[in-house]
UniProtKB/TrEMBL annotation:
Lineage per the UniProt record: Eukaryota, Fungi, Dikarya, Ascomycota, Pezizomycotina
Transmembrane helix found in the keyword field: yes
Any GO BP annotation: attachment of GPI anchor to protein
Signal peptide: none
Coiled-coil residue spans: none
A Gene Ontology molecular function term of the record: serine-type endopeptidase activity
Keywords: Membrane, Transmembrane, Transmembrane helix
Native organism: Podospora aff. communis PSN243
Ranges annotated as spanning the membrane: 27-48, 74-93, 105-124, 136-154, 175-201, 288-306, 626-649, 679-700, 712-730, 750-779, 833-855
UniProt domain Peptidase S54 rhomboid: residue ranges: 65-206
Subcellular location: Membrane
Keyword Electron transport: no
Protein name: Rhomboid protein 2
Pfam families found in the cross-reference section: Gaa1 (PF04114), Rhomboid (PF01694)
InterPro entries attached to this UniProt entry: Gaa1, Peptidase_S54_rhomboid_dom, Rhomboid-like_sf
């Protein structure tokens, strides 16, 4: 027999096995491996510090840096760190993906398998250890997968017998964790422990609660034909496509033979389902589905005022006990009020400093500590300056850890003198000083106006102010539990109380605060209560709908509606009380409402949290919560995403009939030939549209007030011409194809749907309003052969453009366009209102891209289908 070199045989065999193993790696595992390598290569350069940008640093994790929760597993300290993690992770990840499928792995490892360990680490590091140790690397996934494998091994082989001792097999990752911590001092013991804990949790059978529903993943897999399109893709359907389910990327299926598995696509999958999935007519369904989403969303909204979809309000916080105490504010206090009112009337027309000098002397005479605060804001070329005056009544039974605020602006939002509000606050300060029942400090705040003054004071109270514009507060109390603002400019007796509760950016106070005021005023005092300027409400469907729509409009605009609005972003529940109507109620009745509300807030043992923060009120005692109304905005936002996905799929098929004729006659089950996607031009157009969105945002927030109307007019003209200029440039120099116009629209709608879906959870009304105004973009397409249709659609888009809607809204409410833009700039500069960002950086770029697509004239020649044997992207 010939001699054989065992070393040569072993070396060749090992190379073959290694090459075979790498070639058999499933798709997601390959993607993770490539991502780790790419991030390591990018991290080699010294121009940009990748590790500082993407590591999980507890103190740097915020709303704008949540990407760190997903980037840190791909970033490593050095080559050795990356190599060790890759060698440990790839076998475990390959086994997991082969058993659970590529889509499930993608959803888990970019979802709960990275975010849950991250949040656990942040909690332990910041709250428990009070440290700020940065972590990075894929080892957290290694220990997570080891935890899953350890529990699986424990179910089959519970113990490892060492001599006379039985060691549970599930403890093996813990031993490895301790060894790594001892041998590698720079490793994160806490990070590895968090990953291992999640792995144990999933291994015990709870992973099904973290994974997406299998029906949805099956639908996505079948809809996009992922099994046939993507090489090395692992199917979710293990019974139909086998345990590993990896299809070859090219070539014909293996022939049937006895004892050998047959073609995976022809055994269990019905031919009718395949034909339906590949049928080009399926691409005609998404427009109708998008239209259905819009119609259902609108109908859903109009169903909310019905009794079947709304419910009555109730008090969730039992400690409030609204209306359970007797109020004593009356009698001799009315004489005190009249004296203070006489003093206030004499101050009418005086400067802010003179007013504060007089009020401070009055408050000091009551024995309260007083302080002042100056502020100066600049917006739209105007200066908003003033001086706040406040006093603190220290609680006889408290320790200065909590406080309640009573706010009165010298001038309300309409510019009227708060003739009865300021005297009532002074009278209540004198009245509250006589009582010893207060467990919380009471702060009496008098501001020169209703927006800038409260905003400056609240910012400084929470040390979030700009010291160059706002002075710090020399006197403070504890955590603010609530605030009540008085807007009492009416001279005559009143009939009812109007509750204003809209905050900045659509934020709302806890519903328990509004319910408490309604219970005290309406139930105990017998005073009528109104909301959203519905002075007469008969609790029928039309009035409910009108009230709800008014509230949604104010919430969508996001501007401050009173002194209370500045408190809500700091989680301080606040409302403004406005008396209205001609009745027999006097100032003492209003004072008793304030006293009863303060007595209820005084009972709180913790911050209001049990009731709703997201709601729509349609009557003072009827509301809908976020779980009921949110689907309306989500459906409208989903129509953009559905159409974007459909256009992406459609762009992968040949559109030119001449190209299709060159193909052989298809069978009944054959699909439309695929083509390559040219992404460079569509991505460039979308990037350009998104980039220039900062121009109107900057112009309308920095131009002087006198220049705002001409600036708006000039921008409107440019806005009308810009789609034509951009379309002419593309047609002349690039000649985009139908596919490229489809991709431009797909990317634009995808971004719009993503932004609106996220916005809906924060400001439902703004997301729904923008979604409905932008809904025509879903159905716009190029009209190369019909000039009339092209310009009719362009006129329709111009009618619903951001500039046209702003101008029409200003005219409808009788406002000047300069006043509207000035208020928007003031909200942006002073209150942090983000409505201009949504309008100019989300809605306007989508409108511009849609207009370019509508005016487009695609070239007749399309891309040729993919050559035989060439992989589809």
């Amino acid at each position: 027999m010939p001699s054989i070199s065992f070393g040569a045989f072993l070396g060749n065999n090992s190379n073959l096995r290694a090459r075979s193993y790498v070639n058999r790696l499933p798709l997601f595992t390959r993607g993770v491996l490539v991502a780790i390598v790419v991030f390591w290569i990018v991290g080699v350069q010294s121009v940009w510090d990748l590790r500082t940008w993407g590591a999980l640093v507890p103190d740097l994790v915020g709303i704008s840096s949540l990407y760190r929760l997903n980037t840190y597993p791909f970033i490593h300290l050095n080559f050795f760190h990356a190599l060790m993690n890759v060698l440990a992770l790839v076998p475990l990840l390959e086994r997991f993906e082969s058993e659970h499928g590529t889509l499930t792995s993608l959803a888990l490892f970019f979802g709960p398998f990275v975010t849950i360990p991250s949040f656990m680490y942040l909690f332990i590091e910041k709250v428990v250890l009070r440290a700020n140790t940065a972590v990075m690397g894929a080892s957290i996934w290694v220990f997570l997968l080891l935890g899953i494998e350890a529990i699986r091994t424990y179910k089959l082989n519970p113990y490892l017998v060492v001599g006379t001792h039985n060691i549970p097999t599930w403890t093996s990752p813990i031993a490895l964790l301790l060894c790594v911590a001892a041998l590698v001092p720079s490793s994160s013991f806490v990070g590895h422990l968090c990953g291992l804990a999640v792995g144990y949790f999933c291994g015990l059978g709870y992973m099904k609660y973290l994974a997406p529903p299998e029906k949805i993943l099956r639908w996505i897999e079948g809809k996009l034909n992922l099994l046939g399109r993507l090489p090395h893709y692992v199917s979710i359907d293990q019974q139909t496509y086998g345990r590993f389910g990896v299809l070859p990327s090219s070539g014909s299926p293996p022939p049937r033979s006895s004892g050998v598995a047959m073609n995976l696509l022809t055994i269990d999958c019905p031919a009718g389902a395949l034909r339906l999935r590949r049928d080009p007519r399926m691409l005609k369904v998404p427009p109708y589905l998008s239209l259905l989403c819009i119609l259902v969303g609108v109908v859903w909204l109009f169903l909310l005022p019905l009794n079947e979809y709304s419910r009555r309000t109730y008090i969730s916080e039992n400690a409030l006990l609204p209306g359970q105490v007797h109020t004593y504010f009356s009698g001799s206090d009315q004489h005190v009020f009249r004296a203070y009112k006489h003093e206030v009337n004499e101050l009418a027309g005086k400067t802010n400093t003179e007013v504060n000098d007089k009020l401070e002397s009055i408050v000091k005479g009551l024995g309260l500590k007083t302080a002042r605060q100056n502020f100066t804001y600049q917006s739209a070329g105007r200066v908003y300056s003033g001086e706040n005056l406040y006093a603190i009544l220290q609680a006889p039974r408290g320790d200065a850890t909590e406080a309640i605020v009573l706010v009165g602006a010298w001038e309300n939002v309409k510019g009227e003198l708060n003739r009865n509000g300021i005297p009532l606050i002074l009278t209540l300060a004198r009245y509250f000083k006589r009582w010893s029942l207060w467990s919380k400090d009471i702060i009496f705040l008098v501001t020169p106006d209703s927006i800038a003054g409260p905003q400056a004071w609240v910012d400084a109270y929470h040390d979030a102010h700009d010291s160059s514009r706002v002075n710090s507060l020399p006197l403070k109390s504890g955590l603010l539990q609530g605030a009540i603002a008085l807007d009492y400019a009416q001279e005559t007796r009143f009939e009812s109380v109007h509750i204003v509760y809209d905050g900045i950016n659509g934020q709302l106070p806890n519903l328990d605060l509004i319910n408490s005021v309604v219970s005290i005023a309406g139930g105990q005092m017998g005073i009528g209560v109104a909301i959203q300027e519905m002075w007469h409400h008969n609790d029928q469907y039309p009035d409910r709908l009108r009230t709800m729509l008014r509230g949604m409009l104010k919430q969508g605009l996001g501007r401050a509606s009173g002194p209370h609005s500045s408190f809500i972003p700091y989680h301080v529940d606040a409302v403004t009380l406005q008396p209205f109507g001609d009745g027999w109620q006097d100032e003492m009745a209003m004072g008793r409402v304030v006293e009863g509300t303060f007595r209820s807030l005084n009972n709180l043992l913790e911050h209001l949290h049990q009731s709703f923060f997201f709601y729509l009120l349609m009557q003072r005692e009827r509301f809908v919560s976020i779980g009921t109304y949110l689907p309306s905005a989500m459906l409208v936002a989903a129509n953009f995403t559905i159409m974007a996905i459909a256009l992406w799929v459609k762009s992968g098929y040949a559109q030119d009939p001449s190209a299709a004729k060159k193909q052989p006659a298809p069978s009944k089950s054959a699909s439309t030939p695929a083509i390559e996607r040219n992404l460079f031009l569509p991505l460039g157009v979308i990037t350009f549209c998104q980039s220039i969105a900062v121009i109107p945002l900057y112009l309308f927030n920095h131009a002087p007030s006198a220049a705002l109307p001409p600036t708006f007019l000039l921008f409107t003209l440019l806005n009308t011409a810009l789609p034509h200029l951009l379309s002419h440039y593309l047609t002349t120099y690039h000649s985009p194809s139908t596919q490229q116009y489809q991709l431009i629209k797909s990317f634009s709608l995808l971004l719009l749907g993503m932004f609106l879906s996220s916005l809906a959870t924060l400001n439902f009304s703004l997301a729904l309003l923008i979604g409905l105004l932008a809904s025509p973009l879903t159905f716009m397409r190029p009209w190369p052969e019909s000039v009339a249709a092209r310009y009719v659609c362009t006129l329709l888009l111009n009618a619903v453009s951001p500039t046209a809607v702003i101008f029409a809204g200003a005219k409808y409410w009788g406002l000047e366009i300069g006043e509207v833009l000035e208020q928007a700039a003031f909200g942006w500069d002073v209150c942090g209102m983000y409505t201009p960002v949504v309008v100019w950086c989300v809605w306007w770029p989508a409108w511009l891209a849609g207009s370019v697509v509508t005016l487009g004239r695609p070239k007749a020649k399309e891309n040729a289908p993919l050559a035989k044997g060439k992989k589809e992207l």
